[in-house]
UniProtKB/TrEMBL annotation:
Protein known as: G protein-activated inward rectifier potassium channel 1
Family membership: Belongs to the inward rectifier-type potassium channel (TC 1.A.2.1) family. KCNJ3 subfamily.
Transmembrane spans: 45-66, 120-143
Reaction(s) this enzyme catalyzes, per UniProt: K(+)(in) = K(+)(out)
Keyword Transmembrane helix recorded: yes
Keyword Transmembrane helix in record: yes
Biological process, per Gene Ontology: potassium ion import across plasma membrane; regulation of monoatomic ion transmembrane transport
Listed InterPro entries: Ig_E-set, IRK_C, K_chnl_inward-rec_Kir, K_chnl_inward-rec_Kir3.1, K_chnl_inward-rec_Kir_cyto, Kir_TM
One example GO MF annotation: G-protein activated inward rectifier potassium channel activity
Site feature Role in the control of polyamine-mediated channel gating and in the blocking by intracellular magnesium, where: D134
Subcellular location: Membrane
One cellular component term from this protein's GO annotations in UniProt: plasma membrane
Keywords: Ion channel, Ion transport, Membrane, Potassium, Potassium transport, Transmembrane, Transmembrane helix, Transport, Voltage-gated channel
């Protein structure tokens, strides 16, 4: 088995890293919401905690600053004095007043008085700022938790692709399946052939992408994915595998990227699952074992045979030959 660098891993992760962005990295800040959603969970949680901690400390310091400038901190034993915020004597009490106000707890021991215009302005600013921060961070966390990436893990692809005859035509085939009972609405599948080539003008294309026809004209690419399906690409004169034979398959270097898209029935969000097959994962002269069986009033899928193949008589020649 030859191991080489893949463009797309079997789990669908793309092995592409962007570097030397220079001044273009500022574009990430212009789309800050998407940048936060794309971060890993540990960074999201760190930003979530740090933002709230800093905002709480800054706002509590502003309340303490108002009490300090008005002299409320030195009048705690004077019952005739009307402070800006009642019962705020130090920074911990100012912090507790901010938390009670922000969280709308309202224990009743600390409260703002009507003789403090700067406190009223700060109270309005705190309410607006708190709403903006809550909407931004909580919205970011909600979107990240509701992303359909985990749904793609219950969509299966066969470990290998096979080449054999179907209906008298040589075909490249692989299998897809859905492990959940909930359906993928409007499921569609596409295939890309990643292969290096050189143009007649001498230009070398290291990762040239070519579309593989898996039933665009007939509608076979629109899947009703309630049971495992075998996706078929007919190798004909228009296929990039027109000259591929069993012998030349051993010396070829290519990668077939499979993209399955659909709408998650329970959430209505678009989900995408990906995988790839390299030339050493394409089995010539094999066919997939059946996984469907009819039992008492229903069809049963045996996923233990999902990846299993068996050999069938297949000419070792290419379609061109």
């Amino acid at each position: 088995r030859r191991e080489r660098q893949r463009f797309v891993d079997k789990n669908g992760r793309c092995n592409v890293q962007h570097g030397n962005l220079g001044g273009e990295s500022s574009r990430y800040l212009s789309d800050l919401f998407t940048t936060l959603v794309d971060l890993k969970w540990r960074w999201n949680l760190l930003i979530f905690l740090m933002t709230y901690t800093v905002a709480w400390l800054v706002m509590a310091s502003m309340w303490w600053g108002i009490a300090y400038l008005r002299g409320d901190l030195h009048q705690k034993h004077d019952d005739t004095y009307s402070p800006c915020v009642a019962n705020v004597y130090n920074f911990p009490s100012a912090f507790l007043f901010f938390i009670e106000t922000e969280a709308t707890i309202g224990y009743g021991h600390r409260y703002i008085t009507e003789r403090c215009p700067e406190g009223i302005v700060l109270f309005l600013f705190q309410s607006l700022l708190g709403s903006v921060v809550d909407a931004f961070l909580i919205g970011c966390m909600f979107i990240k938790m509701s992303q359909p990436k985990k749904r793609a893990e219950t969509l299966m692809f066969s470990r290998a692709a096979v080449i054999s005859q179907r209906d008298g035509r040589l075909c490249l085939m692989f299998r897809v399946g859905n492990l959940r009972n909930s359906h993928m609405v409007s499921a569609q599948i596409r295939c890309k052939l990643i292969k290096s080539r050189q143009t007649p003008e001498g230009e070398f294309l290291p990762l040239d992408q070519c579309e593989l026809d898996v039933g665009f004209g007939t509608g076979a690419d629109q899947l009703f994915l309630v049971s495992p399906l075998t996706i078929c690409h007919e190798i004909n004169s228009e296929s990039p595998f027109f000259c591929l034979s069993q012998r030349s398959l051993r010396s070829e270097q290519f990668e077939i990227v499979v993209i399955l898209e659909g709408i998650v029935e329970t959430t209505g969000m678009t989900c995408q699952a990906r995988t790839s097959y390299t030339e050493d994962e394409v089995l010539w002269g094999h066919r997939f074992l059946p996984v469907m069986s009819l039992e008492n009033g229903f069809f049963r899928v045996d996923y233990s045979q999902f990846h299993a193949t068996f050999e069938v008589p297949t000419p070792p020649y290419s379609v061109k030959e």
